Amino acid sequence: xxxxxxxxxxxxxxxxxxxxxxxxxxxxxxxxxxxxxxxxxxxxxxxxxxxxxxxxxxxxxxxxxxxxxxxxxxxxxxxxxxxxxxxxxxxxxxxxxxxxxxxxxxxxxxxxxxxxxxxxxxxxxxxxxxxxxxxxxxxxxxxxxxxxxxxxxxxxxxxxxxxxxxxxxxxxxxxxxxxxxxxxxxxxxxxxxxxxxxxxxxxxxxxxxxxxxxxxxxxxxxxxxxxxxxxxxxxxxxxxxxxxxxxxxxxxxxxxxxxxxxxxxxxxxxxxxxxxxxxxxxxxxxxxxxxxxxxxxxxxxxxxxxxxxxxxxxxxxxxxxxxxxxxxxxxxxxxxxxxxxxxxxxxxxxxxxxxxxxxxxxxxxxxxxxxxxxxxxxxxxxxxxxxxxxxxxxxxxxxxxxxxxxxxxxxxxxxxxxxxxxxxxxxxxxxxxxxxxxxxxxxxxxxxxxxxxxxxxxxxxxxxxxxxxxxxxxxxxxxxxxxxxxxxxxxxxxxxxxxxxxxxxxxxxxxxxxxxxxxxxxxxxxxxxxxxxxxxxxxxxxxxxxxxxxxxxxxxxxxxxxxxxxxxxxxxxxxxxxxxxxxxxxxxxxxxxxxxxxxxxxxxxxxxxxxxxxxxxxxxxxxxxxxxxxxxxxxxxxxxxxxxxxxxxxxxxxxxxxxxxxxxxxxxxxxxxxxxxxxxxxxxxxxxxxxxxxxxxxxxxxxxxxxxxxxxxxxxxxxxxxxxxxxxxxxxxxxxxxxxxxxxxxxxxxxxxxxxxxxxxxxxxxxxxxxxxxxxxxxxxxxxxxxxxxxxxxxxxxxxxxxxxxxxxxxxxxxxxxxxxxxxxxxxxxxxxxxxxxxxxxxxxxxxxxxxxxxxxxxxxxxxxxxxxxxxxxxxxxxxxxxxxxxxxxxxxxxxxxxxxxxxxxxxxxxxxxxxxxxxxxxxxxxxxxxxxxxxxxxxxxxxxxxxxxxxxxxxxxxxxxxxxxxxxxxxxxxxxxxxxxxxxxxxxxxxxxxxxxxxxxxxxxxxxxxxxxxxxxxxxxxxxxxxxxxxxxxxxxxxxxxxxxxxxxxxxxxxxxxxxxxxxxxxxxxxxxxxxxxxxxxxxxxxxxxxxxxxxxxxxxxxxxxxxxxxxxxxxxxxxxxxxxxxxxxxxxxxxxxxxxxxxxxxxxxxxxxxxxxxxxxxxxxxxxxxxxxxxx
Length: 1178
Description:
The protein is mostly beta strands. Helices cover 2% and strands 49% of the residues. The strands form 27 sheets. Strands 62, 64, 65, 68, 71 and 73 form a six-stranded antiparallel beta sheet that branches. Strands 63, 66, 67, 69, 70 and 72 form a six-stranded antiparallel beta sheet that branches. Strands 96, 100, 103, 104, 105 and 106 form a six-stranded mixed beta sheet that branches. A hairpin with a 4-residue loop joins strand 36 and strand 37 (423-428). The termini are far apart.
């Protein structure tokens, strides 16, 4: 385990960081302790409790039909989800078992041997009907955030699909016998690289099915497809969609299919539900091709379910349950059904005479078992036998009536709290992301689909019906987190749906809606391109807004930093967009919490910063980084900032409930880990703690922040990089990264990463040596050192029971071991007589700290730590927390600063980083734990380091400076770099029509988000008509009248442009002279123009003629003409005539003696029979 002295490091950087930036005084983060004692905090209880069930599976247990389902809990509050076994025949709960560490379960599966596998949040569990017990299998794959789907083969091996934003959508396998879990293909199912794919990784495996040795995986959520996977080889094949992108069934969403939300395998057919266009298609797994069957308007958690007598059932958005005949693929509505169909199974349920032929058994969202007989339009909800649990609160807001309103996460209920009576009253309400009011009316913004509901608080609370739906925002909007009032209108800020970018400002007019009898609202999307709206505030006819760089789930952000903007309500236009100056925040994913202060300033929050800006100048005038450790905060849920009647600002900046004095910027932390709170009229603070509501008394006024004098840091321990010193990493073959065997003997020496004993973490190194005639030793990889420095090696050693003596069959008397430090020169040769050693012989059965000090001799460049059992000794020993440190002065610690050359980079290009570091220091560029590039520091001179062609998405790089053998800087993070995928090929050409015989140049540009590159030279151009245009490189020449389609192809993308070639006809010519009086011997140049028409009004053109133009004069002796040059010869007037292609034009020219003044009269012209007559006026 690597050790750090964080405080010392921070203080060092505050001093020696002045190499690149000016020093600044250190301000304390907090000036007072928590204001309210625990005794003063009131627990108001759990307002919303329900038996929320998402999925179910079916089986038999002890002769009874049973339903297996999970009731949602709240892992954050310690009230975990519960797995339930329900006896359907006798309508009773057989048992309820806790799923430790998880909140819900989206998938249940009964395998052929009757075991039940449960995909619960990020963990897998298995239930045995034989032992009635539950086994926790843990997180199946590193990076798993949720488990969406399960299936099994005929041998009972289980396959699961995960969602992961970090490692992508993957499939894991659980061995039926050993329960060992493996990554089926060792990577994401859809990594975007398959032929015809869109280049984007999909993070969901939303559905799974199994058929004859193959797994079928449905991905999403951007543009999901089905993938056929061979579980033996891991080979996968993408199954393309049926038909063409223009087929009406796709509704223009062929490349935006969303997720394969459900897969149902029946016989040879796979029913596939896409939730983008809400369509279901049928794939013949035997033939390996799509059938012609397609079903529209699908709704539900499954594609289809309840197979019985050749029929399947699905739900549609028309609020009907539909029956599908599997033999003919015909469908018909069979009964009303306003819900999302869930996993169902036909069972012969006892004690149900209304269902003599069996019932389709399913689970409802509120924990009830429901029986259906769709052909006979029968349904029956059985009494609920599972217990409800507290549901996490999603929103809390104070209404215009002074009462507190709440919604629940994935819930069906909201709650009203009356401070006067201390009573909660619940009412029907979906998952409301935001709550706001206009006048007496309370508005609720619901997820999904960004629906708005309303209730007049002067009328009784609708405890039976809930608030009324008034409209749906549309335009791909999904989550209305911001709901507030402005100028008598409702302002709504939203996050878009899955894999979409571009939130929206929606303005709803209640007064106009009341007059018209229908909702009157306007939606303005992408006010800040590709960003979502997380803050809105109205002031003086303008709406001030703030954004998050994130869009819907399923794709990395496009923009790098959040923005502020100003929207003019009258003109319906954005006036300004900018990034506030917040002291160089390295990352800025969200700005939110917009509120108008009593000082007339607009207050907002970003990361751990609370700031205020002048609405007129848009300049930040007050700012304090209250929590400097919060550096990358926010995604969708805005920070809430509310003014108390005491003039204090209450905020949950950085998820920490804090009160701020706006005058002094002093602050007090009230409670950590708070993202939801509100105030009542008495300034009491209502805080959401998972499922509970707590009430705090009003806060005291914080003291002003104090400046602290930096403490001069002294020498400290600098830990060198010894790889895997905690032995947590283990290779698949059992070898240990960072360590190698120095000496051993077969059958008597063994080395392993063991979980039997550990000082920290999960593992330690176990060494067993059962022979007194051999030496068994493990050595570290070389650790860089500097000659002349002292190094201290630390190891924790645990002496276990001695091994058995093969000769006697009895254990040896004791375990003994040694720790050695050895030094090496540049050639890798051990330096004799250098280093140190320590022998450990007692005590046994406990961890013993060992330290060895040694000085690196002349010529030394590295050391190794050796863990050894010497000849004549035997041992069973464990080693952990191996470290090497040296004492350094702060002046020896290297410093580093990093900044990307550009915030936006095209996919395929390198990212160039400008790095300043201590001269001679080794620079390491990393993303996470992955080393990407290296360089060498040059002091004040920046060095450019390239990260080779990173994948599309947002990247946060760090730079560390290392002086080998001495010290390393702490990692310094660069500003976020966004690598944009290649999304479009654009063509640019001169506007207008092309005349036969003329040529134009077409330019091609590859578009990478905000970047555009000229790729004309690498683009292949072609035409659908070689008779109309000719293409040579990027030059297009018109050949004959007509329209041709110019096609361009570059790097897998294509673009088209219509080229119209016309035959223009010369209708007249015009001659123009720079002067109409010239002196004898004076020369002028005539210009002759041709006017062309092509029969299309407004398409006439005039061209300067330079060839085949004949100019004459009458009388000829008046001037001399050479080409278009006219020179005066004798005094008098002449008619100058220009001829071209049978058309003539004339002008009059006067020649005067030298020295005479010229008349600067204007001339008039008129067109007569194709000849331009131009004469002096009069």
